[in-house]
């Protein structure tokens, strides 16, 4: 590989803020709103044209899991569009999230990519951004990396590994899409890999493995808030790395090529879908797993199975299963557990999981926090990530107010604020 030496140039400082949040998905959105509500000057940078991440531009069907309490429930209440508040209307949610950001006083900048860091030794002082306005710098006291892949944490030098500990393999990517023209009175809607139906041609999940193009091969269908419209979580691309642009491009193409045969399969085999047709598809590919960063504590699958309540809890009443999509094909991975998930109790996530090793003035939020591959398959879902954002946003604001680094923050101060918002173990 050859190299080009970029000439040195002065970069204008676009803004100086107290808290800078990178990434406007459920975690970053929640962090920005909650930091701003604490009265500190907060800015949110998002690379797409909408906030919400997978919940909006990613066309996710619903808020997953049995998580209770926290900021997540405020999002549900404000964006509800049908009898089931967990079903997402992405167009409504886009506007609701913008309203909440502006009501809180967040400085929002869309269509902007955070591409580099400003460091002083092991302390992060800001980021470099690229946008239509050019290359600019943003100086801040605390950064929250909610970019999903942890792009800023990686550039700052926080240690990490990718994917499964044993071999680095990562969960597959998916492009969500919606079909209309469904007779929902007759339609069968498998909502998990372990759910199937007997249809005229045989067992539905078995038929999918036989007739859908590999690595697609499962049926996951979900109601929407619109009549006759169903969300499909059925495209699949394996052996890809969401931190590589070539792999993102490959996944986009592979998944889009699967949409037509999936729709034909639905028409031919699934009751109620005989006249279905595509009406929309996600604007971004769904990346489930990339970097796992090293924090002051690493959440494990045993912590989740034991429903541990940590002394330094920051997220509470989290609950889901080990939703590990097959790393080598379709369906549930052999290490995943859905229907037979044994833990019925909620668990907590300690504050230490959000505090990365080696780098100061940085907090993590979302699927990039410190956790094992298997634990990650549980906490990566959007409701838990939203409540992570709540805790981390408040923690960032408290660090500014008390002039301390995140690893120096007295977690009891964070817990005291969370308790006033109804968040308790």
What would you note in describing this structure?
The protein is α/β, with parallel strands linked by helices. It folds into 2 domains: 13-165 and 289-420, FAD/NAD(P)-binding domain (3-Layer(bba) Sandwich), CATH 3.50.50; 177-281. The chain has 10 helices and 17 strands. Strands 1, 2, 3, 4, 5, 6 and 17 form a 7-stranded mixed sheet that branches. A hairpin with a 2-residue loop joins strand 9 (198-199) and strand 10 (202-203). Helix 1 (26-37) packs parallel to helix 3 (90-104). It is globular. 51% of the residues are buried.
Task: Map the helices and strands.
Blueprint: E1 13-22, H1 26-37, E2 42-45, H2 71-79, H3 90-104, E3 107-109, E4 113-120, E5 123-131, E6 134-145, H4 151-156, E7 160-162, E8 177-180, E9 198-199, E10 202-203, H5 204-211, E11 221-223, E12 230-232, H6 245-269, E13 277-281, E14 291-293, H7 301-305, E15 313-318, E16 347-350, E17 362-364, H8 373-379, H9 382-402, H10 411-420
Parallel strand pairs: 1-2, 1-6, 2-3, 6-17
Antiparallel strand pairs: 4-5, 5-6, 7-14, 8-12, 8-13, 9-10, 11-12, 15-16
Helix pairs in contact: 1-3, 1-9, 9-10
| Contiguous helical run count | 10
Q: Superfamily at the CATH H level of the largest domain?
A: FAD/NAD(P)-binding domain
Q: Please provide the ordered H/E string of secondary-structure elements.
A: EHEHHEEEEHEEEEHEEHEEHEEEHHH
The residue-averaged pLDDT reads: 97
Distance between the termini: 52 Å
Low confidence ranges: none
Q: Please indicate the percent range of residues in DSSP E strands (runs of 2 or more).
A: 15-25%
| CATH class category label of the largest domain | Alpha Beta
* CATH architecture descriptor of the largest domain: 3-Layer(bba) Sandwich
Classify the oligomer.
single chain
Return the structural class: alpha/beta
Radius of gyration: 21 Å
Helix content: 25-40%
Biggest β-sheet description: 7 strands, mixed
Number of domains: 2
Q: Tell how many strands the DSSP assignment holds.
A: 17
**Overall 3D geometry?**
globular
CATH topology of the largest domain: FAD/NAD(P)-binding domain
């Amino acid at each position: 590989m050859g190299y080009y030496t970029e000439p040195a140039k002065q970069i204008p400082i676009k803004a100086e803020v107290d808290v800078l949040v990178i990434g406007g998905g459920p975690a970053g959105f929640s962090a920005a709103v909650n930091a701003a509500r604490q009265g500190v000057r907060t800015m949110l940078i998002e690379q797409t044209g909408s906030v919400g991440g997978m919940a909006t531009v990613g066309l996710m069907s619903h808020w997953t899991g049995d998580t209770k309490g926290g900021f997540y429930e405020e999002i549900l209440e404000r964006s509800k569009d049908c009898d089931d508040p967990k079903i997402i209307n992405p167009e409504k949610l886009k506007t609701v999230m913008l309203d909440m950001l502006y009501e809180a006083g967040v400085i929002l900048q869309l269509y902007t990519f955070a591409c580099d860091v400003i460091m002083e030794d092991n302390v992060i002082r800001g980021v470099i951004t690229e946008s239509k306005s050019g290359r600019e710098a943003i100086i801040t006291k605390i950064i929250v990396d909610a970019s999903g892949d942890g792009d800023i944490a990686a550039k700052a030098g926080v240690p990490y590994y990718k994917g499964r500990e044993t071999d680095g393999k990562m969960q597959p990517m998916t492009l969500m899409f919606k079909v209309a023209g469904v007779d929902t009175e007759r339609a069968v809607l498998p909502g998990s890999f372990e759910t199937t139906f007997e249809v005229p041609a045989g067992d539905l999940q078995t038929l999918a493995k036989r007739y859908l193009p590999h690595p697609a091969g499962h049926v996951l269908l979900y109601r929407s808030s619109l009549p006759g419209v169903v969300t499909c979580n059925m495209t699949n691309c394996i052996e890809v790395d969401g931190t590589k642009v070539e792999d993102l491009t490959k996944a986009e193409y592979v998944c889009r090529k699967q949409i037509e045969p999936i729709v034909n399969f639905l028409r031919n085999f699934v009751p109620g879908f005989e006249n279905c047709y595509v009406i929309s598809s996600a604007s971004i590919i769904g990346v489930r797993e990339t970097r796992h960063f090293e924090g002051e504590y690493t959440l494990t699958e045993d912590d989740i199975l034991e429903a541990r309540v940590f002394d330094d809890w920051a997220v509470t009443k989290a609950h889901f299963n080990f939703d590990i999509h097959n790393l080598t094909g379709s369906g549930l991975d052999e290490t995943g557990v859905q229907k037979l998930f044994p833990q019925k109790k909620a668990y907590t996530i300690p504050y230490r999981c959000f505090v990365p090793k080696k780098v100061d003035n940085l907090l993590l939020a979302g699927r990039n926090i410190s956790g094992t591959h298997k634990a990650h398959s549980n906490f990566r879902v959007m409701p838990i990530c939203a409540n992570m954002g709540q805790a981390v946003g408040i923690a960032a604001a408290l660090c500014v107010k008390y002039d301390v680094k995140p690893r120096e923050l007295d977690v009891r101060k964070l817990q005291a604020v969370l308790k006033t918002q109804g968040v308790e173990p």
